[in-house]
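so i finally got all the pieces together for this one. its two components total, 309 residues if u count the protein bits. some of the lines might not be protein, just check the labels. i wanna see the whole assembly predicted at once instead of chain by chain like last time, that was a mess tbh
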Amino acid sequence: MRWYWIDRFLEFESGSHAVAVKNVTLAEEHLHDHFPGSPLMPNSLVIEGFAQLGGILVGEHIGFTGNMILAKVPKAQFHFSPRPGDSLTYRGQIEYVKEDGALVSGQSHCGDELQAEVEVFFANVLETERTRRLFSKEELLAMMKLLGVYEVGRTSAGEKLVPPNFGELPDPMDTAGRG
Amino acid sequence: MPDKEEIFSKVQEILCDALGVDEDEVVPEATLTDDLGAESIDFLDIVFRLEKSFDIKIPRGELFPDNVLSDERYVKDGQITPEGLQELRARMPYADVDKLEANPDIKEMSQVFTVDMICRFIEGKVGVEN
């Protein structure tokens, strides 16, 4: 089992924006300790959800090249903590993508209620043996397939997004989110 | 074309967003690292936000020419050499490099990176006359 903080993509437009859902459930063990008798989803995990949404959005846009790593959270404002039974909708959009990095901004809603406003900044770190192992294009593609990106994805021209062929992919439940 | 006041206002907003500081902290003389708490990754973020906000291109190393300070010709034993100061003046005409004359310690370079320096850089890029 790996570290996923979004459940499924609902919208995905290449190079522009994405919408994903995160369902909060009492089956998540950490909620039993955070806090005993009063389970609340840690807001740091909302940030991680945006990091995953943004990382996928940016990684796909730059053609699965580079190593966009979460480097900074310029903004994180939370209006309440989600509880089990809440369904969070994360909307993220690319503010800019450059060779060296990228910024994605977004909001989390629970129903009509604004739950969080987040910005995540990614730095494109040089490929080394270590960073390659942390994040390969095959792992990214496997994550995207698992999370339904290609079921809803569109290109910037409005055409259906088609996954690239990277050959055999790793099991995303074993590899995604490593590190 | 934005005037100086508009440029400062936009720069102030960018630094508030990028560094999570309050508007009243972003005064012209404030230094990015010592006063506003910027770290190395923030410089990249600031450059990107400036590009987007002012619709300009800022090539790598143009605003913050870090490669000068990693050049052995320009820094010896932690001190910026006279040639180094000259190079900084040439590369950063928008910065007050003269303040390094009295103490050219490389650590003092952070004193050059001020809010005003960014405003002057942008004024040069968008063509505001000084």
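The mean pLDDT of chain B is 93.
The domain at 1-59+113-130 of chain B is CATH 1.10.1200.10 (Non-ribosomal Peptide Synthetase Peptidyl Carrier Protein; Chain A).
anyway lmk what u think
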